[in-house]
Amino acid sequence: VFGDWSSDVCSSDLFDDLPYFVRNIHLSNTLLFEDKNLDFAIYELNRIVIPSSQGTEVVHSFNGFEQPVPLWDMNGNEFSKTLKYEGEQSLAVSEYSAVFSVETDSLNISGFGNLNIGCEVFCNFSGKTKANLVVSIENEEGSYIWNGFPIDKFIKAYSNWWPARMEMTVDTREIKSHSQLKLYIWNIEKEPAFIDNFSVTITGFDD
Length: 207
Fold this sequence. Notes:
This protein is mainly β. It contains four helices and 14 strands. Strands 4, 6, 7, 9, 12 and 14 form a six-stranded antiparallel β-sheet that branches. Strands 5-8-13-10-11 form a five-stranded antiparallel β-sheet, with no helix packed on it. The protein starts with a strand and ends with a strand.
């Protein structure tokens, strides 16, 4: 198994798409070969960590935008019955989509070293977009952990439905008490956009 940490990979969105165990080389894995000039390494994988299957599910939520769902705020967006991926309707997105929000104190995460935050949402954009899937952990002073994951790379043909995904790992020691964890789409240019079947899974694990 090899890792190619070239500047082309690290400077692009491709790095975020790599599996967790590639993005985070475990200390128990054995370095067999390394060329620092090429930023190239080969490891013997003594331990492979896959948070989504080896961790403990802390919360899972699915919103098909057919009825009210706990932990979701529609954020003033309107439903669309003419354009939908599944079911009777989808959600038309203005600047910010519906928001999934959960109080971190309610997640009982003290027994975990890390949280793996993942989501999938079906999107329909009429053209090239700068929209991001956003993860924000914030308190009354504002957002102190924030990451945006570009959606456009997932769209193979515009005005069609495509699943956009993201995965992010957070050290639980960085999460302050009385915080909220939020996931949503930021439609930066406010172009016509629709979303459906938005699922969120948060997993606690130790590596």
